[in-house]
Amino acid sequence: xxxxxxxxxxxLLLVQSLSLGASDRYALASGPVPxxxxxxxxxxxxxxxxxxxxxxxxxxxxxxxxxxxLIAHFDWLYANGYHMVxxxxxxxxxxxGTPLPPQSVLLTFDDGLVSAYTRVFPLLRAYxxxxxxxxxxxWLDLPPGQRFNYNGSxxxxxxxxxxxxxxxxxxxxxxxxxxHSYDLHHGVPANPQGNxxxxxxxxxxxxxGYEDEASYRRRVHDDLARSASQLQAHTGHRPRVIVWPxxxxxxxxxxxxxxxxxPVSFSLDGQMAVQLTPGKTIPRLLVGxxxxxxxxxxxxxxxxxxxxxxxxxxxxxxxxDADPTQQEKNLSALLDRIKxxxxxxxxxxxxxxxxxxxxxxxxxxxxxxxxxxxxxxxxVSWQLRTRAGVDVYAWLPVLAFHPPAELRLPTLSDVRPGQxxxxxxxxxxxxDRVRAWVGDIYEDLAMHxxxxxxxxxxxxxxxxxxxxxxWAGESAAQRxxxxxxxxxxxxxxxxxxxxxxxxxxxxxxxxxxxPAAEAWFxxxxxxxxxxxxxxxxxxxxxxxxQADHADWYRxxxxxxxxxxxxxxxxxxxxxxxxxxxxxxxxxxxxxxRMRLLQAQGARHLGYYPDNFITGQPxxxxxxxxxxxxxxxxxxx
Length: 636
Hints:
There is one protein chain. By secondary structure, the chain is an alpha/beta fold. Helix 8 crosses helix 9 (251-259), helix 11 runs parallel beside helix 12 and helix 13 runs parallel beside helix 14 (476-495).
């Protein structure tokens, strides 16, 4: 199975909890506003091919479903009170019109396969179910005799709908047509190593280097315009919807879709949508692996963000080697270890820090400001996603960058890069030049590398003794908010290229035990819970010069649990190394602490560092504690 198809099948999503709020003006004019009724949830199901040979062991199309299973799905949806809605009903509700009925479902079918007419359309008419059909233009334009591999099948033009069939479906009033691009449903080489990423979201890489933003915009714009013109020419209607190939999209691509008349877009984000908002991409739930009714029920009723997260934080410095052959061996060791360990996420270093001082002197991606040690992050991130099946967060400093001296960017203190001590070298986040300079680095990362999230590192703190500039007169809480605002501005820069995007930020345990320490860090657990998807709480007593006793972890877990949303949003990140002695901590001790935290209610667990070169912590010893697998033990 090609990597991109495996990547698609890793994206399972559920859209729910869509609500509309009352206006402030109504509250001022009429007094207290009664609670608005909750908006009924919307689940968008994404199907592909429907076929009857899926029991053949040689079939490799994991996105397909059998006809009998699709019929069973339709029966189950009807029997359980789900309401199939049309795109127009969704748009009306999105724009403040008639609310959706309870348990609303929108059916979508991608790619324009002939089974949409021969197998799906008769069922839509029998059940009177509306649907959205997304057509990939180049496949409907295949010249006679031309063949290609579609999800493991040798296909020619006969695999896809004829325009006569398309028009019959549209004329029924049950089917609305959408663009699935003209020819973006493939990968493009996106780094020097030749990894192929989805064409709609990636700057292509060739002999002249990376595509620039203007060329990328033009490529996406021209493709979507061609798709819209093709549909208008054959059906008389221009599409108002883009269904992104592989569910992958960027903010820049969305701008180009709107520019050619497609303001509505669908993805496969796996991200919860809280309200129907015009201009916001609507996530879908991918129905694959020929799942039966029980599988569909589980898929629809299990929110994607409900499962416990298991996180391993990895130094990319361990992968890098000046010898390309050794570097590939290091990467293979990492991939093999993570694949066997089966965590849910890897927080992956995107900057070079060989001296371990926490300051970025170079980066592992092309950028406009710092040396590139190697163009490595995109390759490792993509391989982890497609070969090891984990979500990758890019781990970057917030303030600890070492710019060229001639820039004379202001710093928070007189600490110099590489200088021993308790503090990081940190740039001043209140300075507009620093904000723009660091923002460029974050956007450059997003332009060149796949990721699902950002980890803001532990250098993001402010001392009350720092040179705080215009922030000097702020209270501790205000400085916390100001620093959060800086990270949110960085997130916005990244979101031009990576959507949807999760965020996590490291937090020192001292602040959790003693909220008054906010004055010394500009950090706050309640504030972080409200600002980020996850708080990476450094559950490392060694950092605070504390003894590693069970009671320390119990008190930490209790303090987190006392905060609303604390357990749901906090990752307890343990140390795999004693920072005072530089000696490894045994997997047995780490595991005992993880079990203790779980007994106190902790939901999300992780550790740092993972030394996949030396095998520390030992794989078989740590796997039962950190794996998200159903059977996290050595197979008999």
